[in-house]
From TrEMBL:
It comes from Streptomyces toxytricini. Pfam families: EF-hand_5 (PF13202). Residues 8-43 form the EF-hand domain. InterPro entries: EF-hand-dom_pair, EF_Hand_1_Ca_BS, EF_hand_dom. SUPFAM superfamilies: EF-hand. This is EF-hand domain-containing protein. It comes from the Bacteria.
Length: 184
């Protein structure tokens, strides 16, 4: 049984779809996900090894979770099928799906972590916003403030893990995790 499509979850899934649809053709394909990693790597001061980790993690998400959602043999995943499929994955196999997404988020954390200290500070998060498509600085500062649950000036793996779970499962419009990939 597919979970009910709440407005908050729908909005977040559409936001994520737009971030991953790098060629803006309205479909996700096997090529879109590594292109998303490459776009991030090109805009951030990270080595190719860090970008490869994100490409690999996104490739695993495609193979294990998204490609099976295509269902029609074209290898193209439209928005409606993506929304249904992600909701279904979260409802029926949450551990597998959220573990895969968290692996990608951890790779993203490493890519954004310019100084290699295991945390994303505000300047690093702002650069990520630029890489995602020039999100306004004040919106990214707001997002960072919401995600920094401890108020210690950085996002660590615990903050990111909690945000991943909230992003894909919470229908609370005020959940901090809604801001993981910038403002909605």
């Amino acid at each position: 049984m597919t979970p009910i499509a709440t407005p908050v979850l729908t909005h977040k899934l559409r936001h994520m779809f737009a971030l991953l649809d790098t060629d803006r053709d309205g479909y996700l394909t096997a090529a879109d996900l590594p292109a998303a990693a490459d776009r991030m790597a090109a805009a951030l001061p990270a080595g190719q090894e860090k970008a490869e980790r994100l490409r690999t993690a996104l490739g695993r998400i495609w193979e294990a979770h998204l490609r099976p959602m295509t269902g029609d043999g074209t290898g193209r995943l439209g928005l409606a099928a993506y929304e249904r499929g992600v909701r279904e994955a979260v409802a029926t196999a949450p551990a597998a799906f959220l573990t895969a997404v968290h692996e990608a988020a951890a790779a993203w954390l490493a890519l954004c972590d310019a100084d290699g200290n295991g945390r994303i500070v505000l300047d690093e998060y702002l650069r990520m916003g630029e890489a995602l498509g020039g999100i306004a600085r004040e919106d990214m500062e707001d997002a960072f403030g919401r995600l920094d649950r401890s108020g210690d000036g950085g996002l660590d793996p615990v903050d990111v893990h909690a945000a991943v779970i909230e992003f894909f499962t919470s229908d609370d419009p005020e959940a901090a995790g809604n801001w993981l990939y910038g403002p909605l």
